[in-house]
Design a protein that fits this description.
Blueprint lengths: L1 H33 L23 E5 L3 E5 L2 H10 L3 E6 L6 E3 L4 E4 L14 H9 L8 E4 L2 H11 L2 E3 L1 H13 L1
Antiparallel strand pairs: 1-2, 1-3, 3-4, 5-6, 5-7
Bound molecules: zinc ion (2 copies).
One zinc ion binds next to loops.
Amino acid sequence: MAFSSHQLKTSSIYRRGIWAVVLGLAGVLAYLVLSGRIAPGRPVCSICQRPLHPAQVFLAASEKEGERWACCPRCGLHFVIESNGKALRATHFSNGKLIDAEYATYLEGSDLMQCCGPTTLRTDSAMICEVHYDRCMPSLVAFANRQEAQTYQQQHGGRLVSLAEAKASVGRQMRK
Ligand SMILES: [Zn+2]
Ligand SMILES: [Zn+2]
């Protein structure tokens, strides 16, 4: 009899322990969602609130505001200039892998654009995008190497630029 009541006690302590762990995990998850570290549902650009497209995401950081994920390099560079921050990571357009923003080759002004619509835009819909002021236009996408950027350039137009040149171009656009 004494044995079974002891057993009962241990199992209820054990159960309480599990609940503490479950509640603790729920708390951590809620904190991460509320603090914006995990976006619930579809992740969006922290600068323009558009959905993030895996082939174009860009990571920047500033001392004051911490790390920010952007929908494309152009949007991310807006943030870098506005907050005096730093470009950290870009995405290699052809395979969606994160690369060092500093050493990427950027293709500016091509018809590759995922921010303005659910699919890559053709010229007619890209025009609609340009009618409104759009911080994501002209298109700016990143490549891990120059060769691949050139291959895309031959098919989609635009010009190849470095991170510094891309930043300068965004800066000129912002002063307009
Ligand atoms: Zn954006
Ligand atoms: Zn964008």
